[in-house]
Amino acid sequence: MSRSHESPTPHRSRAGLRRRLARVVAPVAIAALGVTMASAPAAADEVETAAYSHYVAIGDSFTAGPMVSAQMPLLGCMQSSVNYPKRLAEELGVEEITDVSCSGAVMSHLYEKQFDDTEPQLDALRPETDLVTVGIAGNDFGFSEMLVECAKQSLGNPVGSPCSDHYGTELDDRIEGMRGEVSQVYADIAERSPNATVLAIGYLQIMPESGGCWPSTPIARGDVPFLDEAQTALNRMIAEESEAHGAVFVDTFERGHDVCQGSDTRWVEGLIPEDGAPVHPNNMGMQATTDFVRDALGVPSP
Q: What residues are paired with 134 via a beta bridge?
């Protein structure tokens, strides 16, 4: 899978991350270079013992994967059995995974119960947790409400920019207003699991840069770049605030896989989904996210 893409966030050095991951990368690199018959079994043993011991996946529906392969409860968190945390855990050979991602989650649900039978997501963290992925803030930003409003606005002006006119600078203000809360999330994760490698997972591209695909995804032509820029700004803010607390931002925003693409190309479903919930990652989107995270960890494909 190609990883050449336009990035909405500045790529910072991952040297620190790679140093922390030496226990994973070094044995794999030795095996890949081809060692002697005598040392090969030892290298294989190192790879097995190098796996993470406790992985916690925190997030909203872009992590949970509602309706992906229809392998989840129909109520509650609607967590798919093939979402990216579970794929990643299997590929990395993680000893224990605690996936607390939940559809509809907002940042307050990291600190309080979302449902009667769910605990606050951050309660899953332990001092010995050594891997954490976080995908949160999209619902706080209001992705769903925004898309519904823009769809309504488009009906009377499908080639103009009625949604941009409706919101003005509000979306930028929302993003700036969320900075403190996002920053606190990553500070609290670092405090609860101080030795963990923490990765902030960006949101997959939803709308294309321009044009769109009205009426199948009813966003007015002039509002397509407006929404694309808003998502880019959200990802950028998450990157800045998470990295300030030692996390590594995983840029999943690879263009060409948005809702307007064909079923063999798109990573996010449109309003009439074939595999997954409307305007959410599909099976390919979950695998792509898994690949992005694995690449960020410096672990070769299985």
A: 58, 200
* 99-138 tens-digit pLDDT: 999 999 999 999 999 999 999 999 999 999 999 999 999 9
Catalytic residue among 61, 80, 161, 193: 61
- Judged on CB neighbours under 10 Å (0-12, 13-18, 19+), 147 is buried
Sign of CA dihedral 264, 266, 270, 274: positive
Active site includes 280? yes
Residues 4-27 have a mean pLDDT of 40
Q: Which of 120, 138, 122, 136 is nearest to 189 (CA)?
A: 122
Q: Which of 220, 229, 225, 251 is nearest to 238 (CA)?
A: 251
Spell out the residues 6+ positions from residue 96 whose beta carbon is closer than 8 angstroms to its own: 53, 54, 55
The one catalytic residue among 7, 39, 280, 301: 280
> pTM higher than 0.85, yes or no?
no
Structure tokens belonging to residue 50? 């190098």
Q: In the structure, what pLDDT confidence band is assigned to residue 301 with cuts at 50, 70 and 90?
A: confident
5 assigned to active site: no
| CA separation for the pair 127, 181 (Å, rounded) | 22
